[in-house]
């Protein structure tokens, strides 16, 4: 029997700092809910809006896989490995923090906000040499199908991380259905709806809802309206 957990959009942590408005699907910073510390190895899912010209000053990370998915605008990244880059909608950025990195993230634009997802996954290897990568995806490759954007392998589609995880993005027209089969026994799936209405198995979801399912080998996805969503398969332990 499959196990599930539902996180409605309005139940997320809400931190509004003026220059930053962040909604937390899991406990983060000043938001703490003992029932929502993680979903398996998925530790952080932050839905961030950074105002024009503002951003996160230089700060450290270690032993975490950090994935950024821009939704609107341009996000400028600088880090202690010497990387300087701008990521925008259609890009995926990944950092393996490993033994330790420092980085900053700023809204490149002075006239509009930048919106992005910041996701942390607990790695399966500690103290690796820090690494950075980013790629630009063809957004058309997620139209009415699942586009793989992350995996455990450098030879597979998308970016890769030190964890037995796979991420996919989908942008489905109303009425489109598909099935997703778990790649590794013991993994779970967490769906985050970016926009629209999606039914996962028999659970109806709307914009910014999150839904986790485990002890299941496959799920069905049906678009009840034009919808865009992120599907994350991660180990549960």
Explain what this protein looks like in three dimensions:
The protein is mainly β. The chain folds into 2 domains: 13-136, Jelly Rolls (Sandwich); 139-235, Sandwich (Jelly Rolls). The protein has no helices and 22 strands. It has strands at residues 3-7, 13-16, 20-24, 42-50, 55-61, 65-72, 74-79, 84-88, 91-96, 101-107, 114-121, 131-136, 146-151, 159-160, 166-172, 177-181, 187-195, 198-200, 203-205, 210-214, 218-223, 227-235. The strands form 4 sheets. A 7-stranded mixed beta sheet has the order 1-20-17-22-15-13-14, with no helix packed on it. The two termini are 18 Å apart. 36% of the residues are buried. The mean pLDDT is 97.
Structural class by sheet pairing and helices: mainly beta
Kindly provide the name of the CATH class of the largest domain.
Answer: Mainly Beta
Low-confidence stretches at least 5 residues in length (pLDDT < 50)? Answer: none
Note the beta-strand portion: over 45%
CATH topology of the largest domain: Jelly Rolls
Question: In total, how many beta strands?
Answer: 22
Tell me about the largest β-sheet.
Answer: 7 strands, mixed
CATH second-level architecture of the largest domain: Sandwich
The number of distinct helices, counting runs of at least 4 residues, comes to 0
Give the fraction of residues assigned to helices: under 10%
Arithmetic mean of pLDDT: 97
Categorize the overall geometry. Answer: globular
SSE order, as H and E? Answer: EEEEEEEEEEEEEEEEEEEEEE
Integer-rounded radius of gyration: 17 Å
CATH superfamily heading of the largest domain? Jelly Rolls
Number of domains: 2
If strands are numbered along the chain, what order do they take across the biggest sheet? 1-20-17-22-15-13-14
End-to-end gap:
18 Å
């Amino acid at each position: 029997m499959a196990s599930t957990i539902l996180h409605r959009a309005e139940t997320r942590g809400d931190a509004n700092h003026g220059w930053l408005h962040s909604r937390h699907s899991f406990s983060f910073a000043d938001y703490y809910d003992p029932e929502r510390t993680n979903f398996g190895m998925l530790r952080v899912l932050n839905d961030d809006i950074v105002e024009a010209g503002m951003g996160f000053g230089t700060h450290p990370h270690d032993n975490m896989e950090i994935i950024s998915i821009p939704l609107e605008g341009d996000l400028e990244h600088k880090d202690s490995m010497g990387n300087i880059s701008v990521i925008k909608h259609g890009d995926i950025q990944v950092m393996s923090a490993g033994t330790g990195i420092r980085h900053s993230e700023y809204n490149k634009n002075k006239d509009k906000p930048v919106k992005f997802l910041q996701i942390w996954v607990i790695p399966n290897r500690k103290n690796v040499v820090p690494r950075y990568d980013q790629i630009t995806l063809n957004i058309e490759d997620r139209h009415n199908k699942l586009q793989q954007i992350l995996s455990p392998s450098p030879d597979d589609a998308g970016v890769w991380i030190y964890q037995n995880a796979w991420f996919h993005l989908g942008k489905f027209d109303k009425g489109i259905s598909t099935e997703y089969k778990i790649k590794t026994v013991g993994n779970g799936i967490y769906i985050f709806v970016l926009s629209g209405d999606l039914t996962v198995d028999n659970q109806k979801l709307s914009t910014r809802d999150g839904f986790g399912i485990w002890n299941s080998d496959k799920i069905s996805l049906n678009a009840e309206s034009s919808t865009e969503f992120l599907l994350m398969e991660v180990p549960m332990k």
